[in-house]
């Protein structure tokens, strides 16, 4: 951290600032320039809030040269993280696809979709039992009953399941759920993140609608700081000035985050577009850019879906997309061999 002092300052205030840093076991190196004095703060400054430093009258500006996250920082981890779910490795060599309905609507629906997506090559079944909805009058999910239907589908197909948790009090219902999803609206629900950090289950962390890359990584840091290292990041589209689609898929997130974190990164093309016609091309782009997988909404009767039917693929179209992704993965492998 670099602290630039004002040209005119009270010496006692500077001494108080230096003492404040030293009490936090940080070293201070003073550099006198022609027009200004700069304090270089050496040590672990993650716990230092810039606004607290700026509260000292002598401070002109504060600059971080070290990211405020360490557990989720690639600088401190030699190898890329791999999250294991049964025999599936997310972040490993395999391209992992999670697929299923946005919301669980019935036992028959979940079982049918689960069998279809497995036949097409999906690795994990997704399904929402507890649904965060913008309108309080919209379908809120089946709750515990929906989880039970997902577990039946898991037993019938052998597919692990991922489902969103909104309240830590609901955790007992998720005992046999393989991956807990933290939705975009809860990305900065820090109380929830702290408690999920102590849970021995992988967490799928979705990027908030207007969250920066650093804010996403800081949310991952919350989970990891409380002990959970099995984190999967998910880019699901962000809100911009564009109104033609529901959200804008930030494809840049994958290569950029690769330079910042060791955590696996998947993409949600369904929420990123809000339109089923765009899911396949966005999935192809996500594959090409090097994401570790996809989470896709698939519904057997999207016209009658209780939630997000317009962005759900029918099983036949999902199967077609999976065939195209398989071909693309083979082509990408040849490209990777050229770089070796």
Question: What this model shows, in words?
Answer:
The radius of gyration is 23 Å and the shape is elongated. It folds into 2 domains: 2-63, Alpha-Beta Plaits (2-Layer Sandwich); 74-339, Aldolase class I (TIM Barrel). The chain is α/β, with parallel strands linked by helices and 340 residues long. It starts with a strand and ends with a helix. The mean pLDDT is 92. The chain has 10 helices and 14 strands. The chain has helices at 11-22, 50-54, 107-119, 144-157, 190-196, 213-225, 253-258, 269-273, 276-288, 315-339; strands spanning 2-5, 27-32, 37-42, 59-63, 83-85, 88-90, 96-100, 124-126, 161-164, 179-182, 203-206, 231-235, 265-267, 293-297. The longest helix is centred in the last third of the chain and has 25 residues, at 315-339.
